[in-house]
RNA sequence: GCCCUCAUCGUCUAGGGGUCUAGGACACCAGGUUUUCAUCCUGGCGGCAGGGGUUCGAAUCCCCUUGAGGGUACCA
C-alpha cells in the first residue's frame, strides 16, 4: 500500500469521550505527519443504540479540537458511503461470496440455545465458543427451520485445522492467537445487518486503509478480522493498538466513570482545545523531551507510533488543569475575554449589553481573573468582586476593622494620592503604597488589610495594586468613604 | 473460568546491560516573592511489584509468581 490512509470509526451510541477522541487524535497525528488522509467513518451497525445526534456531536467536537478529517461522513470522498448502515449492499455482496465459497453458513440457533452453550462452556472451564451445531445442516433440516419461521444469522466458518494467527502490531510486536480459541463468529445478525467484525474488515479493505490505529480493547478481535481478510483475499493493513485511557479506578474510561469523560464537558467548562490536545497527546506517548507544553506543530513533528506506550494511562484531571491554566494565561487576551463572557452572563454577573458597553474594562477584569483559574468556568468566581456591589461576609467585624486607629488617616491619604496620579497602573499604585508606608507612621498591616476589606469586602483576593488599578480612583474613593461611614 | 495485553515515584512518563546514589512533569510539603489567596521562583518528599535465572555487571534480557486491564455478545 503506497498511500497512507487512516480512519477514525466511532460508533454514535453516546457522546464522544476522551478515550475515543485520543484515538482520533493519534490517527490524525499520523495522517498529518505523513501527509496521509484521515477518513471519518460512522459505525452505526448497532441500529438500536446509534443516533444521528451523537454523530453530530462527534463531528462538532473533532472540529473544536482541530482534528479535521479529509474524507468521510459530512465530507464525502471516493470510497463512500461512509456510514455503515448505508453500505449494507456491499456487506451483503461479500457475505454471499463467503456463503458460496463455503466459508460462511446460516445458523438457526436461538438466543436461548446459545445461552445454554455458554453456560456449559463456563462449567467446563472453556472459553465460550459456538459449537458449530448448524455447520453441516442437511437440506431437510434447513427447510424445517425455515418452515418454523426461525431467524438465522450468518456465521463465518473457522478452518478446521489448528493454526496460529499472528497479529503484527506496531506497538506490541507479534501477538499470537491459537485459532482453536476462535469460534464461528457471526458476520450477519438476524436483523440483516452486518456485525462490527465483518463490516470493519470490508470497510478498511475497500477504503484502502493502510494503518488501523485503535484502542487495545480491539486487540482480541483482530485475529477474527485477520481470518476474514484471508478468506476474502484482502491485503492486511498495519495494526497499532493503543493503550487504554483509564479512569480514577484504573478501569477503561467509560460513560459510568465518575469524573467527566465527555469531550463536550471539557469544552463547556472552558478548557482550551489546544490544552486538551496537548494533554491527550501525552497520554500514552511522550516526546522524550522534558518540556511538556507542546504546540500542535511540535507534536505533529515529533510523534511516532513506535514511541507509544504499552500500558494504560490514568486520566489525571489535576494535570490537565495545570496545563489548561498555563494555556489560559498564555493565550491572547481578546480570545479569553470572548470565551469568558458567556460564563459571566450565565452567572448573572453581567448581561449582554453590559458586555458590549464595557468591553475594555471587562478585559482588565478578566485578565486579572485568568491568573487564578484552571478553566474558564471559574472566571465568574474570580471576577465577581469587580462586578458586584461590595458585600461583607461579616459587616459588624468589618465596621470594627474600619474604626481602628489610623484607618481614616490611611484611607484619606490613599485617596489623595490616587487622585494625584493620572493613570493608575499597578506599578503606580505600588509606588503609592510605598509612599504611604514611608510617610505615615503605621504598620503594613494597617495599610493593606483595611484597604482590601473596604474595596473588595474580602480578606483575600487579587493583589491590591491590580484591584485598585482596575477599579480606578473614583470607585476606590467611593468604597473607602462608605467604609468610613460604616465605622461611625 | 478461558484467551490476550501490561507492570519505573500517588498520577503521566524518561530509561532499551555499565554514564542510575533512576531523570522530568502534575500533585503534595517547606522556604522565598506577593505584608493575603493564587501566580511565580527555589528546595524537599516519593518509585524500578516479588522471586529465580543469564551476565564481570541488570530498571533494562529470559522464566515463574503476583497484580492490573482488556476480550470472551445477533455492542462497537
Automatic annotation (TrEMBL):
Keywords: Aminoacyl-tRNA synthetase, ATP-binding, Cytoplasm, Ligase, Nucleotide-binding, Protein biosynthesis. Pfam families: Anticodon_2, tRNA-synt_1c. It comes from Halanaerobium polyolivorans. GO terms for biological process: glutamyl-tRNA aminoacylation. Residues 4-322 form the Glutamyl/glutaminyl-tRNA synthetase class Ib catalytic domain. A motif ('HIGH' region) lies at residues 10-20. It is an enzyme of class 6 (ligase). Catalyzes the attachment of glutamate to tRNA(Glu) in a two-step reaction: glutamate is first activated by ATP to form Glu-AMP and then transferred to the acceptor end of tRNA(Glu). Belongs to the class-I aminoacyl-tRNA synthetase family. Glutamate--tRNA ligase type 1 subfamily. PANTHER family: GLUTAMATE--TRNA LIGASE, GLUTAMATE--TRNA LIGASE, MITOCHONDRIAL-RELATED. This is Glutamate--tRNA ligase. It comes from the Bacteria.
Amino acid at each position: 500500500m503506497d498511500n497512507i490512509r487512516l480512519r477514525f470509526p466511532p460508533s454514535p451510541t453516546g457522546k464522544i469521550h476522551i478515550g475515543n477522541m485520543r484515538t482520533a487524535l493519534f490517527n490524525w497525528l499520523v495522517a498529518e505527519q505523513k501527509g496521509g488522509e484521515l477518513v471519518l467513518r460512522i459505525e452505526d451497525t448497532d441500529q438500536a443504540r446509534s443516533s444521528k445526534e451523537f454523530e453530530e456531536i462527534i463531528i462538532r467536537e473533532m472540529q473544536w479540537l482541530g482534528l479535521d478529517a479529509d474524507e468521510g461522513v459530512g465530507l464525502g470522498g471516493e470510497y463512500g458511503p461512509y456510514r455503515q448502515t448505508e453500505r449494507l449492499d456491499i456487506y451483503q455482496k461479500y457475505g454471499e461470496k463467503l456463503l458460496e465459497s463455503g466459508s460462511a453458513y446460516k445458523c438457526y440457533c436461538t438466543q436461548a440455545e446459545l445461552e445454554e452453550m455458554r453456560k456449559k462452556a463456563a462449567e467446563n472451564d472453556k472459553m465460550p465458543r459456538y459449537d458449530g451445531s448448524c455447520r453441516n445442516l442437511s437440506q431437510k433440516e434447513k427447510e424445517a427451520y425455515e418452515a418454523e419461521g426461525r431467524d438465522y444469522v450468518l456465521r463465518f466458518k473457522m478452518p478446521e485445522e489448528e493454526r496460529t494467527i499472528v497479529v503484527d502490531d506496531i506497538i506490541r510486536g507479534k501477538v499470537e492467537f491459537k485459532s482453536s480459541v476462535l469460534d464461528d463468529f457471526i458476520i450477519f445478525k438476524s436483523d440483516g445487518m452486518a456485525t462490527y467484525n465483518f463490516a470493519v474488515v470490508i470497510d478498511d479493505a475497500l477504503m484502502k486503509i493502510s494503518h488501523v490505529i485503535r484502542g487495545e480493547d480491539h486487540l482480541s478481535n483482530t485475529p477474527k478480522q485477520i481470518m476474514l481478510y484471508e478468506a476474502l483475499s484482502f491485503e492486511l493493513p498495519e495494526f497499532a493498538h493503543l493503550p487504554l485511557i483509564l479512569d480514577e479506578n484504573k478501569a477503561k474510561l467509560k460513560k459510568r466513570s465518575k469524573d467527566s469523560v465527555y469531550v463536550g464537558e471539557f469544552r463547556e467548562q472552558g478548557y482550551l482545545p489546544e490544552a486538551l490536545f496537548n494533554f491527550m497527546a501525552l497520554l500514552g506517548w511522550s516526546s522524550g523531551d522534558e518540556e511538556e507544553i507542546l504546540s500542535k506543530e511540535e507534536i505533529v513533528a515529533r510523534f511516532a507510533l513506535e514511541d507509544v506506550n504499552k500500558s494504560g494511562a490514568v486520566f489525571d484531571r489535576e494535570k490537565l488543569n495545570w496545563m489548561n491554566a498555563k494555556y489560559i494565561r498564555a493565550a491572547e487576551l481578546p480570545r479569553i475575554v470572548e470565551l469568558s463572557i458567556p460564563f459571566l452572563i450565565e452567572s448573572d454577573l453581567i448581561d449582554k449589553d453590559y458586555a458590549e458597553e464595557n468591553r475594555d474594562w471587562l478585559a482588565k477584569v478578566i485578565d486579572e481573573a485568568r491568573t487564578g483559574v484552571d478553566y474558564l468556568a471559574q472566571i465568574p468566581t474570580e471576577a465577581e468582586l469587580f462586578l458586584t456591589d461590595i458585600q461583607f461576609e461579616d459587616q459588624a467585624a468589618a465596621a470594627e476593622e474600619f474604626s481602628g486607629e489610623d484607618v481614616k488617616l490611611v484611607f484619606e491619604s490613599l485617596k489623595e494620592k490616587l487622585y494625584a496620579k493620572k493613570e493608575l497602573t499597578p506599578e503606580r499604585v505600588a509606588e503609592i503604597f510605598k509612599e504611604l508606608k514611608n510617610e505615615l507612621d503605621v504598620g503594613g498591616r494597617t495599610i493593606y488589610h483595611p484597604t482590601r476589606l473596604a474595596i473588595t469586602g474580602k480578606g483575600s483576593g487579587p493583589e491590591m495594586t491590580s484591584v485598585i488599578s482596575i477599579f480606578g480612583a473614583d470607585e476606590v474613593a467611593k468604597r473607602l468613604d462608605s467604609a468610613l461611614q460604616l465605622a461611625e
